[in-house]
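## Example pair
The file below holds two records. Each record gives the amino-acid sequence first, followed by its structure token line.
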Amino acid sequence: MTASASTGLIPCGKSVSSRRSAFRGGTRALAPSRAVRATPRSVAARAEVREIFMPALSSTMTEGKIVSWLKGEGEAISKGEAVVVVESDKADMDVETFHDGYLAVIAVADGEMATVGAPICYVAETEAEIEEAKAMAAAASSG
């Protein structure tokens, strides 16, 4: 068995230093690409209602207890702001929001338990969508 057979390499007959890189040489210009033009269109920004789920604060956490809400329903919240304190199987931790908006509905009250991944609150991007968030929460709790 040759050395090349044991390593799975195929000998090419040239030393590494004498091989020419595929990235060097060739001064040929690339063909010009086709121009893509966006057609003007109106874009209507639509605000959203988002569900905030019980996070997994440790690798072994399956459920968490809401210790306390730091914000109340209807209050404005900002991305990165702590909104709730959750007790996991290891410690109590502040949970931050990833969205700007309004804390529309608290689905899991202080002292209650929620499984990881279950909705604990709803955040509306605008005050006008708080009612939509309440309807979503009511539909989720009845279904």
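Second record, same layout:
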Amino acid sequence: MDDTNLESFNTDYMRKYRGTSRVALKPTTTQQVSEILKYCNSRVIAVNTQGGNTGLVGGSVPLFDEVVLSTRGMDKIVGFDDDGGSLVAQAGCVLENLDTYVQGRGWTMPLDLGAKGSCTIGGNVSTNAGGLRLLRYGSLHGSVLGLEAVLADGTIVDLLRTLRKDNTGIHLRNLFIGAEGSLGVVTACAVQCAPRPRSVQVALLALPLLQARHLAEILSAAEFLDLESMKMVTKYLPDNVVNPLSSSSSSSAAAASDSPFFMVIETHGSNETHDQEKMGAFLEDCMSLGAVTDGLLADSGRQASLVWRIREGITEALVRRGAVYKYDVSMPTAKMYELVEDIRSRLEAAGFRCDSGSDSAVHVLGYGHVGDGNLHLNVSAPKYDDRIQDLIEPYLYEWTGRHGGSVSAEHGLGQMKAEVIGYSKPEAAVALMAQIKASMDPKGILNPYKLLPQKALEEAYSKLNKADGATV
């Protein structure tokens, strides 16, 4: 390929990370992946596995000139069990396409992301993607029944089973879920789908304070965004998105448009009348307590899509505006917005303007999955500035660690966070991860320079080399 065609393989979605690979390969079968890895391993050629390239921590693009192994050509649905709801698909299948396929058969994918139109199921599995409905359907460690992966030396490991229960030995599939392609290339997976809900209710709420309360058993998603996020979406998205609360005829519309927080609530159930009554009672209860100043219960699929477009469009709006510093952390819900306010105050104290009225301002936004304590803290600036990053890092990671949180809730570690895993995991755990990496990829060709600290990897490979050189 020429440099123009390689640009999309070398550059991440946010245009923050850029590699210099001169080779991108697009296999269509597991056997082809095996042959590629066998060849590269024999010559110690580094390989960067890439799916939809929608990652946000630089895990999907090369750092240098690694060979890009794209799974986009592996986009076949292998099979589906209409009775049990288990789906088997190649790694390059786009998430939205899979959801459309199973929905036509009365099921739904247990995973939903803003990037569903581009991300691939293999990438989702390799990063253990969380998404909007983890609260209802759990993580991929529970939804993935089996998978197929190719090791660094080309060995094909076939764990592609659709059994709900299989307690035979070490559950190897879990090694590959969330390993970000560092232990092997996921080429196919079996996913347990959920029954398609007969009733879906969506509401957008305006809140004076960020809090979650009185959530029902039919809840499938509880998302929040702050006023900065709402303003970013309505200003920068190309499809003229508006805040439906500010355009409503309610007496509180004016106050709602400037509400400090908004929440998207979605329920999945089987009885529409029951679910509507439950959602209505929930809204009335919240408003009577003063927890909600205004709300909208979507009365059509179009209106529900508009509400979700606001929440899912935040990242797109940020990228359209300019440079983005994205952070994905988890912590106790009560602490989530404290971190946003702390970072904003820190930048303002250093002389950066954080008011929303200026095009040159640095905007600090908070949004995310309030139902599971996952905060997406984003800093938007007209262009990348090392001073901004130095004010954020490592302060943000230290703050998160002090409050018992995780430096990566769902985005993974990639290039961005490989060296800061120690704020969330003890040294012994990191060392064990490095030992697993060294034993499964002895020549270190798979997605190098990512996921784990270089020091831990060097020590693990040093021990491996000494053991290989020892005489028995």
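Notes on the second record: The chain has a mean pLDDT of 92. The CA atoms of residues 91 and 122 lie 4 Å apart.
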